[in-house]
Amino acid sequence: MTTAETAVETIQREMTTFARRARASAGRMHPELSLVSYTLLGHLEERGGCRATDLAAHYALDKSTVSRQVAALERAGLVERRLDPEDHRVQVLHLTEAGEEILAQVTRSRRAAFRERLADWPEADLVRFAGYLERYNAGTPAGSADD
Questions:
Q1: Predicted structure pTM score
Q2: Under the phi-then-psi rule, with left for phi > 0, alpha for psi from -120 to 50, and beta for the rest, what region is 143?
Q3: Mind spelling out the 3-state secondary structure of 91-127?
Q4: What does the pLDDT profile of the chain (147 residues) look like in tens digits?
Q5: Cα separation, 11 vs 135, whole angstroms
Q6: How far apart are alpha carbons 2 and 57 in whole angstroms?
Q7: Is the alpha carbon torsion for 78, 83, 85, 87 positive or negative?
Q8: How far is 88 from 91, CA to CA, in rounded Å?
Q9: φ and ψ of 89, to 5 deg
Q10: Which long-range contacts (CB under 8 A, 24 or more apart) does 121-128 make?
């Protein structure tokens, strides 16, 4: 195995560990808010609302998966549907006040956890790591869905 192949194997293993840790910590930060739910709420906040089909397309998720997640968020009072002012046939998802509060609370907790985990990293390493993550997430391999 070449050095590059070994590095890719290590990256894959470490990214899997990272994803598992993120899912586990999401439950500890807010028991009713899964990592997927947190991500969807964050997207709604960032966009100022959007359609469920837009969420499915953005995250390359099945529409039924998004529908179940959105239904759970609606039942929890974190998301509401509103008619699109430009097209009354379309419903747009928006955060409720409770959704905004929970998202802010979980975001603060997640940032604190990241700060704690990275507290002893030199600033140059943090900047380099942030740049690598942005570069990785910006790349889209051929044949995959765009984020």
A1: 0.76
A2: left
A3: EEEEECHHHHHHHHHHHHHHHHHHHHHCCCCCHHHHH
A4: 899 999 999 999 998 888 888 777 766 666 667 888 888 999 999 999 999 999 999 988 899 999 999 999 999 999 999 998 888 889 999 999 999 999 999 889 889 989 999 999 999 999 999 999 999 988 866 545 443
A5: 14
A6: 36
A7: positive
A8: 7
A9: -80, -15
A10: none
